[in-house]
Design brief:
The chain is mainly β and 349 residues long. The chain has helices at 102-107, 122-132, 160-170, 255-258, 274-288, and strands at 6-14, 17-22, 31-35, 42-48, 61-68, 71-74, 78-87, 92-100, 138-140, 177-178, 184-186, 197-202, 215-218, 226-231, 240-245, 263-268, 293-300, 310-315, 318-330, 336-343.
């Protein structure tokens, strides 16, 4: 495999259009991070020289790009949250802490009771909240599910991001996330399976750029094997309850194998239907089979990774299908990418 040429560009966007470039300092190469468990998944931090044009750090946005052998890969769009301007005897610099466009929805809070009529389509409701937050670029998987009753259940001051994620949970969708183009993505929860693999990291494929070394950590002692979800509120005539139990003869966490029931109860204010409530606890049970082990590996910089994607890992005798729990990129020539993976079906013999 030939040696790659790699470079980076940091565009400042004004009203969505390219405005100027930022140049990182030699000791402040930016770091890009993804945390799949966070409400705001992506962040970018680094030190830069002052731009050649005046930048409105309250409104302008930053779009980093990675260029590999001439091919350009966008790495998201980010809003400055913290801007520290520093000056020494020899240079000036700006230290930036930025977050993806979900930050707009986190900062946007309702000033009166948020109301949705009964029969409102869930995706349309979420899209309206995103638009009210200033997020207009949306890619959504459509759903026919509608609100079973009128809703006005969020207090004044609640962030629109919290309301969005509440609604998405009720129909079995992932929390809203931003892709490499800065587009808001609304998608159903995706199980970890061979059919859903988006990336492969293998010590048998030089294109994986996998570096030596692997860390593994397991913590399953208190992992539940019974999941109960309860949905009840004054607007419903009857409450709903759903249960999922681990009876798998292959799972060391099962009720039979452990000889005891370890119950986790989740209370939910609203959900689309009894079927969605059952799907919720079924996902909790499925997740319990993959949440006991994390695997850490390091690769060279790899483009195309979004939030929480399914990745296969081959390292020596280990083959695992995992979800990207977190990753970070050191955006500099010769930089690396650290992956924290959740292994699939760990708790099955």
């Amino acid at each position: 495999m030939s040696v790659r040429t790699i470079d980076f560009r940091y565009h400042v966007l004004k009203d969505g259009a390219d405005y100027c470039l930022l140049r990182p300092t030699e000791d402040g190469w930016p770091t890009l991070r993804m945390d799949n468990n966070a409400d705001i998944r992506m962040s970018l931090r680094g030190k830069f020289f002052p731009p050649e044009k005046p930048v409105n750090w309250l409104a302008d946005q930053i779009r980093p790009e990675m260029i590999i052998d001439g091919a350009v890969y966008r790495l998201g769009v980010y809003l400055p949250a913290t801007v520290n301007q520093r000056e020494t005897e020899t240079e000036q610099m700006i230290e930036l802490e930025t977050y993806d466009r979900s930050w707009l929805a986190r900062d946007s809070r309702i000033e009166s009771r948020q109301y949705f009529a009964a029969g409102t389509n869930y995706i349309e409701a979420v899209s309206s909240l995103l638009a009210a937050s200033g997020i207009g670029t949306i890619s959504a998987v459509s759903s026919t599910l509608t609100l079973p009753e009128a809703r006005e259940s969020w207090e004044i001051g609640t962030s629109r991001l919290d309301i969005i994620n509440d609604l998405l949970q009720e129909i079995g969708y992932r929390k809203v996330w931003m892709d490499a183009e800065g587009t808001a993505r609304l998608e159903p929860y995706e199980t970890i399976s061979a059919e859903n693999i988006r990336h492969s990291i293998s010590d048998r494929d030089v294109r994986s750029l996998l570096l030596p070394g692997m860390g593994r950590q397991t913590d399953v002692y208190s992992a539940p094997n019974v999941f109960v979800a309860i949905c009840s509120n004054p607007d419903k005539d009857e409450g709903m309850i759903a249960t999922a139990e681990n009876h798998s003869g292959q799972s060391p966490l099962s009720i039979q194998r452990r000889g005891r029931r370890i119950v986790e109860v989740t209370r939910i204010d609203n959900i689309a239907s009894q079927e969605e409530l059952q799907a919720f606890v079924d996902r909790q049970l499925s997740d319990s089979l993959i949440s006991g082990e994390t695997i850490q590996v390091t690769t060279g910089l790899l483009p195309g990774f979004d939030s929480g994607e399914v990745t296969s890992l081959q390292y020596g005798e280990l083959f695992a299908i995992c979800r990207e729990k977190a990753w970070s990129m050191s955006l500099k020539p010769g930089g690396d990418m650290k992956h924290t993976l959740e292994r699939e079906v760990l708790n099955v013999d």
